[in-house]
Amino acid sequence: MFKGSIVALITPLANGKVDGDKFRSFVDWQIKEGTHGLVPCGTTGESPTLAHEEHMHVTELCIESAAGRVPVIAGCGSNSTDEAIRLTQHAAKAGAQAALVVSPYYNKPTQEGLFRHFKAVHDCSDLPIIVYDIPGRSVVAITPATMARLAELPRIIGVKDATQDLARPLRTGLDCGDDFCQLSGEDGTAVPHLSQGGVGCISVTANVAPALCAQMHEAWQAGDLATVNEINIRLFPLHEALFCETSPGPVKYAASLMGHCSDEMRLPMCEISDQSKARVREALAAMGLLA
After folding, report:
1. What is the number of domains present in the chain?
2. Which domain holds residue 185?
3. Which of 93, 108, 119, 160 is labelled catalytic?
4. What is the CATH number of the domain that holds 117?
5. Is 119 annotated as catalytic?
6. What's the pTM?
7. Please, what's the b/e burial string for 169-191 (b: 16 or more CB within 10 A of its CB; e: otherwise)?
């Protein structure tokens, strides 16, 4: 089972192209800082605007750079089922440990359509699959009944839950079983999600504060609730700053201030406002994350 602090990796860009050198260096830094797992090509990695070849290349770079030190959960989602299948098959061939598959965005499928989509991806390879439920971006939510149906499929092993519904992990645990891997998709609710049955977080904040995020989860696993509470309170203003505009704008700017990459994004995403830049800079400085 995947657990702990798993980073939803940004994708460094330079002059409109993926900056492979920066990405490799960033992955290595994440692992050395204690991150427990890597997710390339998720929403934070700007997957909707990566060409298919770029998407596959970034996945390969991540797996090569990780070199087996931590698991790689490859982002393989799409609003096209055929495309999600191709990306999942590629991730399996490249050596990923699992695939993260988001609910199809924009299409607004029914619950039956959602089930068939995930089943088709499930059936295309032997790779374990984590379902990504994020109604705020995909418009459609996966109901508990649909999640329970999906959990019956042998290789659908868990969920990245970005619903912010803190009763949901309890319901999912009851419906899907204790071995169903529940990962929070919201940094600000990661700790209460753990208390309701979660085992980790696929984190945006871990892009810039990987050590603290990892230490918080390790303290949780050790039963050190005082340390969990202390770190959680310290991180919360940073969580808020990194979502002051649509992600990954703020976190990419934060990473640029720390020297990891440029803040370049692809349209329709663009650089954040000066006011937001000041807020991100202040949050990083308060955490002691700026040189």
Report:
1. 1
2. 4-223
3. 160
4. 3.20.20.70
5. no
6. 0.97
7. beebbeebeeebbbbbbbbbbbb
